[in-house]
Amino acid sequence: MCRWLAYTGAPILMEELIFKPKDNLIQQSLHSKSPRTPTNGDGFGLGWYDKQPYPGLFRSIRPAWNDSNLRDLTSHIESHLFMAHVRATSLATIQETNCHPFRYKNWLFVHNGQIANFGQIHQALLAKVSSKYFENILGSTDSELMFHLALTFGLENDVPAAISEMVRTVEAAGKEKGVAESLWMTLGISDGESLWGFRYGSNGIGPTLYVSPDMVELRRLNPDLTGKLGDFAACLVSEPIGNYQDSWHAIADNSKIIIHNQRVEVSDFKP
Amino acid sequence: MCRWLAYTGAPILMEELIFKPKDNLIQQSLHSKSPRTPTNGDGFGLGWYDKQPYPGLFRSIRPAWNDSNLRDLTSHIESHLFMAHVRATSLATIQETNCHPFRYKNWLFVHNGQIANFGQIHQALLAKVSSKYFENILGSTDSELMFHLALTFGLENDVPAAISEMVRTVEAAGKEKGVAESLWMTLGISDGESLWGFRYGSNGIGPTLYVSPDMVELRRLNPDLTGKLGDFAACLVSEPIGNYQDSWHAIADNSKIIIHNQRVEVSDFKP
Amino acid sequence: MCRWLAYTGAPILMEELIFKPKDNLIQQSLHSKSPRTPTNGDGFGLGWYDKQPYPGLFRSIRPAWNDSNLRDLTSHIESHLFMAHVRATSLATIQETNCHPFRYKNWLFVHNGQIANFGQIHQALLAKVSSKYFENILGSTDSELMFHLALTFGLENDVPAAISEMVRTVEAAGKEKGVAESLWMTLGISDGESLWGFRYGSNGIGPTLYVSPDMVELRRLNPDLTGKLGDFAACLVSEPIGNYQDSWHAIADNSKIIIHNQRVEVSDFKP
Amino acid sequence: MCRWLAYTGAPILMEELIFKPKDNLIQQSLHSKSPRTPTNGDGFGLGWYDKQPYPGLFRSIRPAWNDSNLRDLTSHIESHLFMAHVRATSLATIQETNCHPFRYKNWLFVHNGQIANFGQIHQALLAKVSSKYFENILGSTDSELMFHLALTFGLENDVPAAISEMVRTVEAAGKEKGVAESLWMTLGISDGESLWGFRYGSNGIGPTLYVSPDMVELRRLNPDLTGKLGDFAACLVSEPIGNYQDSWHAIADNSKIIIHNQRVEVSDFKP
After folding, report:
1. CA–CA min distance D229, chain A (Å)
2. ipTM for this model
3. Contact C206, C185 (CB under 8 A)
4. Would the pTM count as exceeding 0.90?
5. CA C100 to chain centre
6. How far apart are CA C124 and CA D134, in angstroms?
7. pLDDT tens per residue, range C142-160
8. Which subunits have 3 or more CB–CB pairs within 8 Å of chain D?
9. Shortest Cα distance from C60 to chain B (angstroms)?
10. What's the distance, CA D247 to chain centroid?
11. What is the C-alpha separation between B32 and D194, in angstroms, rounded?
């Protein structure tokens, strides 16, 4: 199981969310409470937007907790929209190209979860990726392939529709191999303007996904942060961080969340 | 351009060929005389056979010349059949899974050269790999794909026939995209018993490939080595190593070499 | 807190102890039960003796559990005397030169524990290392410095006496800075013939250290292993591995163990 | 021999100097024309100032030419004062803590050159470092030790005086061991406000050091850059980069250069 967070709002140093909060992503990666994957030590990644046309990417196969470059970069780079991911796997190889986020032009993509029996449908799914996007696949994960299937299905024009078709495609490929319930996922996606989150399981139950409290609540809980966060700030996380963990709002199974123009909308996701 | 060597003969410490000779592979990797790729600093790999059922593999993305683990391993591991490879690329990502040798069960495979316009035919060639071998592809190089195409075409039963069909398949895929001359390669292949070498170019000109002098000449040139090399020893290299560089025998373009049962046979390779 | 094991006996593939036992070192490194250092993901190392004059060393800053080179090497290299170590630190930098074992000529050294307030006495202790050994210090850990102090104090001639003087020297340096109880350690040391283990704490309580059951018990517990282990085999571990964890014998605090000529001797260690 | 550059002026993306110019530092690192050290593939580092109190640092042991993180960071991070360094060594270990720049609080330090017979005086010089700075030494290079000696001798108050005393101290230590000419160096140093460069050899001949053409000349040579470089920009390099290599000004042997408040001053350096 992986962990991730995505932030959009007033520009902040990335360390404000990645290193400073209690039970932050890096602490979680080292002291996991999950019995299934006790440690997220199989690489990490950051993707951030700034005034450049495409987002920056920093990915490494070192554990996030002992990478001094990561600490320096997050304490020097400010961003109004960024994603971070820590990886745990017993499957695909540990290499930078298998670390999230994945990037295509102005798009970033992070994933937690997995495709069941991926080895059985990997080759068939690769064949469905448009040649336009194929050479942007650099690694061997189910996650990167899901991103490129979604690109093939029009992610750049309609995110929820493309993710729906990606889900249907994966599930259909699974069924051909006798796998009834193929997908188990949360996704974080951005084009640099909007931030999308998805929580889905083929069996109706996906991994957890949370959104931060609204600004009124945030200011009440963190009077000190008021200056830093400005008018609007929102964060998606696979598991709550910080001192007020009970204040995070769980996104329901089979739902999506869109954060755009300082507005947060949650709705059903029924592919 | 990459560099490689393959050895078969009496068991020797791998350093005897990799570090000790004048102008050895590691020296070549750092002080290349080639204007095209002045340095082979993009990873390396070793594969070696011993009494275990499958060969051992050690691959790293560090430059070979500054890896202290490599020096220790080659000065402690003896093998009667091994391969070493240093990589230079401006193309596929630097990651261990893109380092040679590639392995499937008891088979090892190294490659120097490239498929022209690989990006245009990568996806089509991947679709031709048998599902039996597909999940053994871990990286993104043309080299690893050539190996898995050859496996698909029966490498485990008939090496020259499978390599021929691989060559024809790659050239046909290239022609569909308007590429007249797709392949430029030397290959080193072993099953742990025999050692095969191939030199081929679609345009009739492949990268260089050399075989070591025969035993009579070797003993004359290296009286000191006589004890170490025993009854038989042969080595394939992309470029000559050692003090007697003029004594290496060039393998002609579009030829193959088979070393088996202490015999060396060179013949045409016309796919 | 780090973890380590050391083996001496009939030559075996290193994986027999490192990867195959239940709750082996690699499993322990990932699923630690210790609240203080939940994960040993900050590098690892192997040192092994064979017929070469000096032992081989393989050290890496990747977590041991996701290093495919480590898996291959331990399944191909046989040794009659070897050590393995997994590291967890919040202190010294993560780099290969800080990974155990440390080596000087035919000597290997592993350590678990720490010097309290090391930063305050680091420089003073460095000044006490003989210039003969100084340039063999490549990293920045307390462990490597302890080894080189012991070398300075005659480790090559009398191991317990040199370790005693090292302990007294560290404790005296600590006391000068007002630290009453400076040392907390287990050590594993070998010259390629004998294997020494030490358990010590300045306050009378050291980290745990265990020795494997004697051969009669081992054969009763593991009828299958009889062939592999030959006449004699013994293993020191920081924490028990395998199916019969209760059968390991704890070494008492402030004790040493010497395994030599197929004999195991435990005695007091009072520096 | 290493290579480095240091820039101060209008804020620019670091790639403008590190990747974009003809014969840039990265190209130089791969295609060296120096027979002594044909490749600078033994790690690299970046240090940059922004509005944070201390500079950021990014160091890696991968060759600079194949590090995709380096490319991304330099194309996303703007700085008004930064340094970059590529390393070639046959001596000290390849590890991040041996990569330049070295940092202490707001200070950065890069070095090209070496201390002759460093192994003979390493321990004696370490003993001269003030305990205040000692624990900031993380690696094992002569360069980092030179920086910490200079800190000990008052670098934070008077840069040329501290560098002079460091030089005298190293030369005296060398002479005690019979080394007549110990030092061969260029240095780049900054506190975030000013930039200092030194070129010195104990034998009167140091490695090369160049400063960029003045603004009038720069604008004439690069009409396109006028907008980017603003009122003032200056760059120190170990070897000229860009299209107008003959326009760089060589700093004479045993000289120093100070760039402060948009002024450039060159003067003698006679320690």
Report:
1. 18
2. 0.92
3. yes
4. yes
5. 8
6. 11
7. 999 999 999 999 999 999 9
8. A, B, C
9. 9
10. 21
11. 40
